[in-house]
Design a protein that fits this description.
The protein contains 1 helix and 8 strands. By secondary structure, the chain is mainly beta. An 8-stranded antiparallel β-barrel has the order 1-2-3-4-5-6-7-8.
Length: 177
């Protein structure tokens, strides 16, 4: 009778195993997302509030490819402007229902900032952390980031090297597939 037990266990395991794709859509992980909303950065001692676009593609496990862009300035002066592009990787973990997710990642990129007659052109290193909530498709995200930059300050006296650390905050409404 002891020889029959492994066969019985194998039969039970085979019958209990899923045989096809999940029928509950909340168990199907997202593979793409796109978020849009306001973003605030404080590099070069000037706050910039502009439009942010953030997207990602699922790579494997909890790893995602990530890209972001920010444009414009809604600051009080017309003499201010900001544009940035960056890309990197992030890890995303969600609750079993998928309703709440946390993300941590790091991006490399470029920004150009104008404050009156001074232009800053910088390389960026941006660790970022976010939380998002929502249903299977619609998401609301809040993000915080630490922004390391190094580059060139250009003004009437010429070019000078610049570097520093800033912070960024964002909120976005998004859609995931």
């Amino acid at each position: 009778m002891t020889a029959a037990r492994p066969g019985l266990l194998l039969l039970l395991a085979t019958c209990a195993a899923p045989t096809g794709p999940p029928t509950d859509l909340t168990t199907t992980p997202a593979s793409l997302y796109l978020m849009v909303g306001p973003g605030l950065t404080t590099d070069h001692a000037a706050p910039f509030v502009g439009f942010a676009i953030d997207g990602g593609v699922h790579v494997a496990g909890s790893w995602w490819g990530h890209a972001a862009a920010r444009f414009g300035s809604l600051s009080v002066s017309d003499d201010l402007g900001h544009v940035e592009f960056r890309a990197g990787t992030q890890a995303r973990s969600c609750s079993p229902s998928g309703g709440r997710c946390a993300t941590a990642g790091i991006d490399l990129g470029f920004q150009q900032t104008t404050v009156k007659d001074v232009t800053y052109s910088d390389a960026l290193l941006v660790p970022h952390f976010a939380g998002d909530v929502g249903d299977e498709h619609l998401r609301l995200r809040v993000q915080v980031e630490l922004r390391g930059f190094t580059g060139t300050r250009t003004d009437a006296q010429g070019d000078r090297a610049t570097q520093g650390i800033g912070v960024g905050f964002g909120a976005a409404l998004g859609y995931q597939w």
